[in-house]
């Protein structure tokens, strides 16, 4: 059963039943830097302090404002401040016409400006009306138009690479039907000036999706995956995750010679960071499943061979993983599932893999979501839940840029944070916005 067919069928059932919550959001006050999630409001999500990563009755906001979970408290914990809606919002260029769903995004710093790229479309699902916009700003308040990209088919997964005084932009084309996930080609273009780019060209190979481009210790990397259509066809065919590098921003090759594929199996969206000793810590999304189950993988590799990954299975699914290092520690931003356990893999393990896949997807779409921050332990290959971003409904495709030694501007998308706490599939068919906030880590001791 294909992803969107299942999702749309489920959404009709949910909409007919009127399943939603009607509470208001009490959380990060816009522009105030204050966390109001505990001020005079009951934690009706069941995901507050001491409750772990599950949710209990997350849908019931009728007795007070919904809150964001923050099990990490005290001076040693990161904080979120200065929430601001960016899209739709004031300060946008006149050339930008946003559609209801503003979602997949990336952010980068280049020539003293912050560049933001995002997808806008009628809904979360594939559409020939989808478009990618790029804009930049000196203050992240007033934005300059930098370009748009559309192909009469779905476009998504925008990724920047700011390296050696140049800026490249990568993205993927997909199909035209909301009922299919059909990877097409990866494209690359180089920034020449305001609203001026080289002609986009395909690169590396058909069927790949660019997941994360980054520069670490002066070396460019790109993580891509192939076989995404296999996830929602539940056909058991393997996916491949490739770790690449480049000399010119256009032509990519294996980061470790002769070893482009670092994962073959159920893994797709993947991000990584390098520790001070040069070793690698990565998180993959294992939605397709394999002999170990479904959810995610936490992986490590030695500095001597970054393609030699060893992985541990996590039954939680950290959709759209953003992995980054700060002060020698590794952090993850990903989608959090608000069921009792937080796990994605809830199917009967005695069933065939395809049946479990459909069961897991059905349950997952019928559950509320948050976008959250975890700390990743590269020794035990485990995660520790720290806090929720202001988020609900359809949410989580985050990106960060540093502001100073302790703080990052964190961009993410979400259903309106003051709106209904929709289950995921309902949020996917409704408006979503782009938000900016500041993530600050405690001072080093």
The average pLDDT value, as a whole number, equals 87
Poorly predicted runs are 1-51, 55-65
Total count of strands: 26
**SSE string, helices as H and strands as E:** HEEEEEEEEEEEEHEEEEEEEEEHEEEEHE
Biggest β-sheet strands, sense, barrel: 5 strands, antiparallel
Per the principal axes of the C-alpha atoms, what is the gross shape? globular
Q: What is the gyration radius calculated from CA atoms?
A: 20 Å
Note down, in words, how this protein is organized.
The chain is globular, with a radius of gyration of 20 Å. The termini are far apart. The chain has a single domain (3-440), classed as Neuraminidase, CATH 2.120.10. 9% of the residues lie in helices and 41% in strands. Strands 6, 7, 8, 9 and 10 form a five-stranded antiparallel sheet that branches. Strands 11, 12, 13, 14 and 15 form a five-stranded antiparallel sheet that branches. It has a four-stranded antiparallel sheet with strand order 1-26-25-24, with no helix packed on it. It has helices at residues 3-17, 229-233, 353-365, 424-428; strands at 79-87, 101-110, 113-121, 131-137, 144-149, 155-163, 166-173, 186-193, 196-197, 201-202, 208-216, 219-226, 239-246, 252-254, 261-265, 270-274, 280-290, 293-301, 310-314, 322-326, 329-337, 369-377, 382-388, 399-402, 407-414, 433-440.
Q: What is shown here, in short?
A:
The chain is mainly beta.
Helix and strand topology:
Layout (H helix, E strand, L loop, with lengths): L2 H15 L61 E9 L13 E10 L2 E9 L9 E7 L6 E6 L5 E9 L2 E8 L12 E8 L2 E2 L3 E2 L5 E9 L2 E8 L2 H5 L5 E8 L5 E3 L6 E5 L4 E5 L5 E11 L2 E9 L8 E5 L7 E5 L2 E9 L15 H13 L3 E9 L4 E7 L10 E4 L4 E8 L9 H5 L4 E8 L5
Antiparallel strand pairs: 1-26, 2-3, 3-4, 4-5, 6-7, 7-8, 8-9, 8-10, 11-12, 12-13, 13-14, 13-15, 16-17, 17-18, 18-19, 20-21, 21-22, 22-23, 24-25, 25-26
Helix pairs in contact: 1-3
